[in-house]
Amino acid sequence: RGCNIDFTVLDNDIKRLQPRPNAEVNQYWMCDEGRLNTQYVGSERRLTKTTGAPVEVAETGRKLKFAGVISTYSTIEEMFLFKKLMEALRAGPIGFLTHTRGSQQKFPGGFVIEPDKTPNRAYANKLFGADAVAGGIASVVQELQSGAIQGLLVMNGIPDVALPADLVEAAKKAQFLAVNDILQNALVEVAHVVIPGTTWAEKEGTFMNVDGRVQRIRKAVEPPVTARPETQWLQEALVALQARPAAISAEGVLREALPDLTYGKIGSLGVKTNGSVA
Fewer CB in 10 Å around end: N or C, the chain? Predict the structure, then answer.
C-alpha cells in the first residue's frame, strides 16, 4: 500500500528508515520489505556506465518496429511518458515486469501486506489495462522471436528481479536493445544502449496503491552521477520525435497524466482519485 516513511541520511547514504504515521495507509507501522530492502540504493553494483544515448531510441525507432517492456516499479509520470513514447514510435506490444511474493497478509486493526511488492501496479492497470499487465511479456517475446519486432526498450528498476528467461533469449534477437535499469543483469549485458536509472529515493514522482491512493515520493539522496531521471530522458526522446514541444517538470507530467492532481493536493498523506487517466 505504500508505507509512508522518513529517511535519515548522512553523506548521501541512507542510514535509517522510520515509519511516518498515515491512518489511511500504514497507520504507525512499516513492512519488512520496505525496512530491509534498501541496500541496493547505495550499492557498488549500481549501473554507472552509459552506453549510447536516449535519443538513439527515437532515431532507431524511425527505422525499426519497436516493442516495450516496463516494470510496475515505475512512477505514474514515467509510465505516462513511456506510453507516449511507444505511441510516437507506433510500437507493437508492451510487456510488464512485476514482482509478487507469497499471499496477502491481514493483521489485527486492518493492516494488510499485499503479495505484489511493486508500488505502482494499480496505475499500470488503469493506464494499460489489467489484462495487459497480467499478461506479462508473452506477446513481446513472441513477436521478437518471429522477427515482427526488431527493436526493444526495457525500463526495469526492480532490484535483483528474476528476469524471465524467454525474454532474455528473445531480446538477443533484437537488432536494437535499449535498457534503463539500476543494477547489472542479463539484459544489460546484451544491450546496445544502457541508460543508468534512478531509484525511488533519488527522484520526484508518484505511485498509486491498490486502494487508488496516489502518494508522492521525494528525492532524498543524489543518484550516481551518470544516472538521469527517467522523466527527463523519456521527454528528450519524445522531443526528438517531435511528439512533445519541450521537457517539463515531473509535476507537470503528473498534471497531464492525472489532470485533477498536483503535488500540493497530494501532500504528505496522499489522496484518493477517481479521476480519468489521460
Answer: C
